[in-house]
Amino acid sequence: MNMAEGDTLISVDYEIFGKVQGVFFRKYTQAEGKKLGLVGWVQNTDQGTVQGQLQGPISKVRHMQEWLETKGSPKSHIDRANFRNEKVIVKLDYSDFQIVK
């Protein structure tokens, strides 16, 4: 992947399954997203999952996807991560990374 491709902006929706509520998953996700310079949001669902959207350069989004799939917060236990609706975008829809209640 060359630099230009790595800088292409993409948007992707995610949902994380496992022990991801009550373990500061949203707080860690927000911190990791901000560290990578991504924007988007994260929230708990009534089904016990965590969902949200990531936006930013493709190389950073890929890093965040791997983090969501394999790492998460220290006390979390991730069974699986679903990513969908991935698309190239011209500009970011958000100004920061927010935790939605």
TrEMBL record:
Zinc is among the record's keywords: no
Domain Acylphosphatase-like residues, every copy: 11-101
Catalytic function, reaction form: an acyl phosphate + H2O = a carboxylate + phosphate + H(+)
SUPFAM superfamilies per record: Acylphosphatase/BLUF domain-like
Active site positions: R26, N44
InterPro entries: Acylphosphatase, Acylphosphatase-like_dom, Acylphosphatase-like_dom_sf, Acylphosphatase_CS
Enzymatic class: hydrolase
Any Pfam family: Acylphosphatase
Homology family: Belongs to the acylphosphatase family.
UniProt keyword list: Hydrolase
Source species, domain of life: Eukaryota
Protein name in the entry: Acylphosphatase
EC number: 3.6.1.7
GO molecular function, one term: acylphosphatase activity
Organism name: Ursus maritimus (Polar bear)
